[in-house]
Amino acid sequence: MNHLKAISMAVSLLLCSVVWARGNVGTPNGQPFTHLQEQIDQINQELDDLAESVGVTLSQLQADVSGLQSQIDDLNSEL
Fold first, then answer.
1. Cβ distance 36 to 19 under 8 Å?
2. Radius of gyration of the chain (CA)
3. Residue 30: enclosing H or E segment and its boundaries?
4. How many Å apart are CA 8 and CA 14, to the nearest integer?
5. Average per-residue pLDDT in the chain?
6. Helix axes 31-78, 2-22, angle to 10 degrees
7. What's the gap between Cα 40 and its chain centre?
8. What is the structure's pLDDT at 74?
9. pLDDT score for 58
10. What angle do CA 45, 49, 17 make, to 5 degrees?
11. Which of the 8 DSSP states describes residue 27?
């Protein structure tokens, strides 16, 4: 989970630098920050979705490993 926070921070900083470099191109006064927050919120949601999908995958892998371990234990008991 710490990796996701680091990625989120890096993406946010990158996004800030891009918006900062562009200045107020195409946005009225005060709107760049609103637009920036919308982009940050969208990225954070995408990261949350990614974390959720990885969690499901990890849970499935743990279940698979548990099942395999059970089969190994059964085979070892037969020896």
1. yes
2. 22
3. none
4. 10
5. 76
6. 160
7. 13
8. 92
9. 75
10. 40
11. S
